[in-house]
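Practice problem: predict the structure.
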Amino acid sequence: MPATAGDTLVQVSTIDALIQGIYDGSFTFGALKKHGDFGIGTLDELDGEMLALDGEFYQFTADGVAHQIDNAAETPFSAVTFFKSEKSARLGKTRSMAALQTRLDAETASENLFYAFRIRGTFSMMSFRSVSKQKPPYVTLPEVVKHQSVFKLENARGTLVGFRCPPFVKGINVPGYHFHFISEDRKSGGHVIDFAVTEATAEWDVLEKLQLLLPSDKAFLNADFTTHDEKALEAVEKAPAAN
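Answer:
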């Protein structure tokens, strides 16, 4: 029996901790799998991006290549759930991620709950990124993404995995939408920057509970979280390609 009941978003650490450069893993993926089979995050030392789909956990290294994650590997930040499709919608041509978000906003009942989204289909354009493994002393996440690797695909088939979080989670998670992408052959993917849809099906699961699994290392315990840098988060989520 799973360690966590359904309709719960289980999260390791906080987004503000990640932004400040707290990248040491605090929870193994073997343990994380007990809390969810679907989700997004990163790995120890910020070694790329993470996506979980159908119970399989993937790492996207800085070259955009997908690798299955060993149970002993650790994460400094991840959000997972046991995905159960509650509603769905067919998507026709959609020009951008922003346009899709507007459509999904109209389909969902409240902005004050958490939603898990799985979107499968064909994307006429898909732009995603990954980041390189870091070494201490760590720089902040906005500094890291200045040197991110950005990839663009055309007519790509694959799946978006992500969440929409309420506005009141500032500092804990990303308010609004946060997607990662994996190609249909499960060979590539990363953190989504933008996309255009040719045709796809969106499915979502309403999550009414949030459970936090907080680190106990000195970096987290001694960090100052009294303020939230909204501009830093925006720079991380929407960072353009590195020069």
